[in-house]
Specification:
The protein is 38% helix and 14% strand. The longest helix is centred in the middle third of the chain and has 20 residues. It is of the alpha/beta class.
Amino acid sequence: MPRFSIVVPSHGVAGRLSLALDSVLAQSFGDFELIPVCDAPDAPAADVAAGYAERDSRVAPVHSPPSDGLAGARNTGLRAAVGGHVLFLDGDDLLAPGALAALDARLGETGDVDVLYFEHERTPWWEGEPANPAAPLLARTPDGAFAPGRAPRLTGVALPAWSALYRRAFLTEQDLAFPGEHYTDIGFGGLAGLRAERVAVLRAVVVRHLLRRQGNRLGLPGEHHAELLDQCELVLARAAEQGLAPDRLSPLFEQLFAAVLKTAAHPRRLTSGRRAFFRRASALYRRHRPAGYRAPGGSLGVQHRLLASGSYPAFRALRAVNRTAVRAATLLPRPRGLRTRLRYALDLRLPLDRNLVVYCAYWGRGYVCNPAAIHAKARELAPHLRAVFLVEPDAVDSVPPGVAHAVIGSRTYWKVLARAKYLVNNANFADAVVKRPGSVHLQTQHGTPLKTMGADQATYPVVAAATGSIARLLARVDRWDYNLTSNRHSTEMWERAFPSAHETLEYGYPRNDVYCTASAEDVARVRKELGVPDGKKALLYAPTHRDYATGFETGLDLARFCEAIGDEYVVLLRAHYFYDRGASRGGGRIIDVTGHRSSEDVCLAADALITDYSSIMFDYANLDRPIVVYADDWDVYRETRGVYFDLMEFPPGRVARTPGELAAVFRDGSWADESAASLRAAFRERFCQFDDGRAAERVVRRVLLGEPPESIPPVVPLAERVPAPASTLTRS
């Protein structure tokens, strides 16, 4: 039997779960079992947990459906536990170094107590000093093991479940489990505190809790706050049955109603039913108030007396006085120009147009990428919806005939942004755009992250300087309702990079549908449009942007490269879209396709891809055609930009570090040999999970038509997909 069982619920934290598991597995004390609780075998966190289980026999994942909530996940983990003591760790928390050794040593001093309370750190997700809220409470307790009556303020309800270690036999004997769905820590902690006969404390930080940027889920508006009263009633009723002594009942009562009053007075938690909540809380207060109880002083004491008297009008008036007038500025837009601001403010007062969809791609570069693919499918499946594409003045010609558009910054631009029910973008709308209640913002993204993104860029000075204010970026992220991903890796990384409350849609990238639906005739047409000579192998060279460089430099002498590999090849040069200036950069065997609007067309035309660290490799892999990585400055790029995985260890094909090596893999044929195909197959398995040709349909049905998740077409397995045929190569 292991000394400790560590239960780690993982719902909604797949992007940080590996950090939590690593913090456990890195402990110097190794006698434990680690139980990640995942939603389902195919959930994002399950993939992470399964990888750990393969590498370490102490990791034993179990599954609990999301509908069972946090309480259900913890109870599932508890039922699976076989260790002597149980510790509950949230999936985005960390065990401090040496934590298990410290717990083991403390148990050696105190014996097997029912509950061992310990300190924890609450760490701001962005900046600020960590707090240790448990320290003052634990400082006033006896030094050894003691009966709970010797520390009456240590009730268990003021500490989260992950700030204590529980003897498993005690939990089993007392039939203790996490109750309800919400505020379950209060119910569980209170019941454990009532039933424990022997407790102790460890005055050291064991858990480091990262405060979520989007806040505690319990702080969100909703009817779930009524469950706080359920948990309080459960604990107080059990205390009454037990005949709890007044000196213990008073601090328990006070701590429970501190939580109740905090919720009752909060301006946003109870959007409806405030009076009913107050009346029920008042009845609960009067029924369980200890004899001789004296309310605290100050404003909190006034709230206690109003709750005891059931005076909701007076309580509401006090709440209004205590709240400063902060509602005003939430709808005050900030577009440039006084006239524009006034017009936009007026448009925001008009009803939403529920049939209007606004699309934008790459900050207005044209009718391209995922927004264009979603729009095309919406014309087929949702013809009742009207669409407006937002474009810069020089991109107006890219909009197909029959598609309405608005020039960015124009009167029409601000008007449709104010009125549209649906807003679809692969980047972000301007800071001044207001997220209206009832509107739906879909973020489609425009690539799979190899390099760090969003909040993860903050630790890389060169990138952070180019990105601008991370805080402003995340304010834009807060407008998202949905975020689209094309593989499980993206799901996890976006969760880290863009912490917010949006829903992730693992539907694939609509722009990549064409890689499964295009025909040989489509490929031939695109090659002809781009000027690829018949019978030639077209190599697409697509380098990415360097944050530490100024201007575009290929890093490769393409003319010399063409000379070295023979005249059977031509090179399609596609620079990063930052450098699309419409100017030619070659001729003859070098065809500049940077200005071509569709990167999907360019990929269809290419028989193979040469890239460095561009996300185009993830999209191109859907075609199952050879990919060669030219990594001449990988070490510099990795250090200055930051990456999410080591591309040199998991490449999509052959890797070349010098121009000579790159030319050699094409001269000797190794760019397309069996070994390269094997690397590509592993890469596709990891990064081509959801791009099956039906991504646009799934998005339209779920987001624009509002169909339930269970009716959305499932993803076609990778082995069953047939990518668009290459022009001159036979796919392995």
